[in-house]
Write a structure and sequence with these properties.
globular, Dna Ligase, domain 1, single chain, five-stranded mixed β-sheet, 15 strands
C-alpha cells in the first residue's frame, strides 16, 4: 500500500509580547505551543534583529516538535495599515488598475516602498467594496529573513487582524483576546478588521477588567464616530473566555462562533487561544 505524504505547514503568530506556533498537516492540528516573547525582539511591529528573533523562533518550533518547513506568519497590526474603499461598477480587467490608483491616494505608505494587497468584499449594482492592506516593504523583508534564518520557507505573511477575522468568520464583532501581559482588540465590520487596539494589563482579574473597560470604551467611541448606531457584540477569546470579567454590552465566548472550516484538532487543543494561527491555516496561498 502506498502511503500519501502529509503536507505540513507551520502557522506562526507574532504579537508584541507573545509567540504562538501551530503545525497543521492534512487539515489537522498536529503540534502547538505558546511562549512569552522578550520585549526587545519586536518594536513597533518590526523585528529589531531578525537573526536573534529567528533563533528564538527555531527553538520554539523545535521544543513544540514542529518539523514543517513551509511557514505562514502574521504581521503585527501596528506594522500594517488597512483601508476600505468603494469603487463604481467596472469590469475585472479595469479593477486592478483602479485599485492601484486608489491605493496611491488612500494608503499612507508610498506604493514603491510598500508590500500591499487587496480583496473584493462585495459587488453590487451600487459599486465594488474593496479592502486594502499594506506594510512597509523593509518590515516584510525582515520577517521573510526571520523565516529563512530559522530554516523555513515563507509562504504567507498577513496582518494579524486579517487572520483572526478569518478564524472568527463573523460579519460584525468586537473581539478581545489576550497574551500574558496585554489585551488585544479587533473590531470586525462586514467580516473585515476596521479597528485594532491593545492595552497593557496585569495578571489579576481587577487589572484585566480595567484594561478591558478601557479598550471597549475606545472601540465604542470609534464606532460612534464612524456613525454606527448599533454596537458590535463583544467576543472574548483565549483565557478571557473563562475569566470573571463583566461586559457592558451583549457578548460571550468566541468558541461558540468559530469558522466551521477550521482544521480538526485534538481535544486538549484550545482553538480560541490560537485564532490567528488557525486563520493562517485556512487561508488560500496566492
Amino acid at each position: 500500500m502506498i502511503r500519501r505524504r502529509r503536507t505540513a505547514t507551520a502557522c506562526i503568530d507574532f504579537s508584541r509580547d507573545q509567540l504562538s506556533v501551530v503545525e497543521v498537516a492534512d487539515a489537522t492540528v498536529t503540534a502547538w505551543d505558546t511562549v512569552a516573547l522578550p520585549d526587545h525582539l519586536i518594536r513597533n511591529g518590526d523585528p529589531t534583529d531578525p537573526a536573534v528573533l529567528a533563533q528564538f523562533l527555531a527553538r520554539t518550533l523545535a521544543a513544540a516538535g514542529i518539523g514543517a518547513r513551509r511557514a505562514r506568519m502574521t504581521l503585527p497590526d501596528d506594522a500594517a495599515v488597512s483601508r476600505h474603499i468603494t469603487l463604481p461598477p467596472m469590469s475585472s480587467r479595469d479593477l486592478a488598475r483602479a485599485i492601484r490608483f486608489e491605493a496611491e491616494r488612500h494608503l499612507p505608505i508610498r506604493i514603491d516602498r510598500a508590500c500591499w494587497s487587496w480583496d473584493v468584499i462585495e459587488r453590487s449594482s451600487a459599486g465594488i467594496q474593496v479592502y486594502l492592506v499594506a506594510a512597509w516593504r523593509d518590515v516584510v523583508q525582515h520577517y521573510a529573513e526571520v523565516a529563512r534564518i530559522a530554516g523555513l520557507e515563507p509562504e504567507v505573511l498577513e496582518p494579524r487582524s486579517v487572520a483572526v477575522a478569518r478564524a472568527v468568520n463573523q460579519d460584525r464583532a468586537l473581539l478581545v483576546d489576550s497574551s500574558a501581559r496585554r489585551l488585544h482588540l479587533t473590531l470586525l465590520v462586514g467580516g473585515q478588521p476596521v479597528f485594532t487596539d491593545d492595552q497593557d494589563s496585569g495578571v489579576d482579574v481587577a487589572d484585566r477588567q480595567e484594561a478591558l473597560d478601557r479598550l471597549l470604551q475606545r472601540a465604542f467611541r470609534y464606532q460612534t464616530t464612524a456613525g454606527n448606531t448599533r454596537m458590535a457584540p463583544v467576543l472574548l477569546a483565549g483565557g478571557l473566555e473563562t475569566a470573571a470579567l463583566s461586559l457592558p454590552v451583549a457578548g460571550g465566548a468566541v468558541s461558540t462562533v468559530l469558522n466551521g472550516h477550521l482544521p480538526t484538532a485534538p481535544a486538549r487543543f484550545h482553538p480560541a487561544s490560537y485564532l490567528a494561527n488557525l486563520g493562517l491555516a485556512t487561508r488560500s496561498a496566492r
